[in-house]
Design goal:
Blueprint (H helix, E strand, L loop, with lengths): L7 H50 L16 E5 L2 E12 L2 E12 L2 E12 L1
Antiparallel strand pairs: 1-2, 2-3, 3-4
Length: about 120
């Protein structure tokens, strides 16, 4: 007389199918983690550029942009990736054209962000 329920073979096949479907998701999780890290680095680099530009714009005179507060170029390492920030000022009449450049390499690709602004002297 057979009772209701599943046999051991049925349970084993169900576990096997479930395990194979989980294995199929592993590449998706790896890709998602890689994209997340790249996005994090993009946001960090842009924030560093914006912070440097804001600091330079807040000075009464760009002659105050000297070490130790302003090091040009400066490099920080975040999650094993070196991020370099540099800035350049070009005088044009009564305006200073400020350009802040942030560079880093990720997965063999060089990434560069440039923020520019004009400041009246």
């Amino acid at each position: 007389m057979r009772r209701g329920g599943f046999t051991l073979i049925e349970v084993l096949f169900a576990v096997l199918i479930f395990s194979l479907s989980l294995l199929a998701l592993i590449p998706l999780l790896s890709t998602a983690a890689s994209i997340d890290r790249e996005n994090y680095l993009n946001v960090t680099a842009r924030a560093m550029a914006a912070d440097t530009l804001d600091s330079l714009m807040g000075l009464d005179s760009l002659a105050e942009a000297v070490p130790p507060r302003f090091v040009n170029p400066s490099t920080v390492t975040d999650q094993g990736v070196a991020i370099t920030t540099s800035w350049n000022v070009v005088a044009a009449g009564n305006l200073d054209n400020i350009a802040v450049t942030v560079q880093y390499a990720y997965k063999g690709q060089q990434k560069t962000f440039v923020l520019t602004a004009q400041k009246t002297r």
